[in-house]
Amino acid sequence: NTTPDQCEYTETHLCVDVNATGSNTGKDWTNALTDLQIALCLADNLETVQEVWVAEGTYYPTDDGDREKTFSLVDGVKIYGGFAGTESTLADRNWPAHPTILSGDIGVAGDLTDNSYHVVTSNYNVEGYLDGFTITDGYAIHEKFFYGGGIYVSRSSPTLVNCKIMGNYAQGSGGGLFFEYTSYPTLLNCEIVGNTADEGGGIHIPNRGAHPTLINCTISGNSATTTGGGIYGIKDP
Predict the structure, then answer these.
(1) What digits encode the pLDDT tens for the residues 129-168?
(2) Rounded to an integer, what distance in angstroms lies between the CA atom of residue 36 and that of residue 33?
(3) Angle at CA 102, nearest 5°, toward 113 and 169?
(4) Are 42 and 26 in contact (CB under 8 A)?
(5) Which pTM value belongs to this model?
(6) Which of 166, 205, 213, 234 has the most C-beta neighbours closer than 10 Å?
(7) Mind listing the pLDDT tens digit for each residue in 119-132?
(8) Where is the Right handed beta helix domain (predicted)?
(9) Domain boundaries, the chain
(10) 6: left (phi > 0), else alpha (psi -120 to 50), else beta?
């Protein structure tokens, strides 16, 4: 997809729908962007954009097989999933009825070994916001990328709301989520289920200054080869 001309935008939110067939501008549902990565790029560069609305469907970090590509949260921008693709206000959204999936299954369908290392990342002072998504099929197995198959957070403080982090894997730590380096993430009404790693199958919090807050979250069915099936944390001195 071709990135639209940024000079044309005055909208405060962009619409994304993988099944849209309009002019691919993101200005409304009829002409929604089909590529979430383009929407995030625009949101990062346009001062007017405060929100990204994403319709039900499955979205992948890339279509070129590059396992290092990921959905990077955008500072100050709220990303909402769970739309039918007809709503005119955020209050109209019924996110449980419209599953919106961020998947790392970028290669051969069902083959984990060519999946994204991290499906979602939040790095370097980003205060992003993700609401109403399922994050799945991350596969962090590499000499450099072996933490945080589902979501990798470093030196940032994202907010995750109404998200389900499931079916992710990390060779090292944090199959579902990995937090490190003065990160202060907040998770509200989230599910962390069915993730796997060597340490901290669901969540890993190393001794590196990370301080996550979890409110009304469910952690179940995760597994670890050595320590901490659900959560593995190392206390700061």
Answers:
(1) 999 999 999 999 977 778 999 999 999 999 999 999 999 9
(2) 7
(3) 35
(4) yes
(5) 0.94
(6) 205
(7) 999 998 899 999 99
(8) 113-231
(9) 62-233
(10) alpha
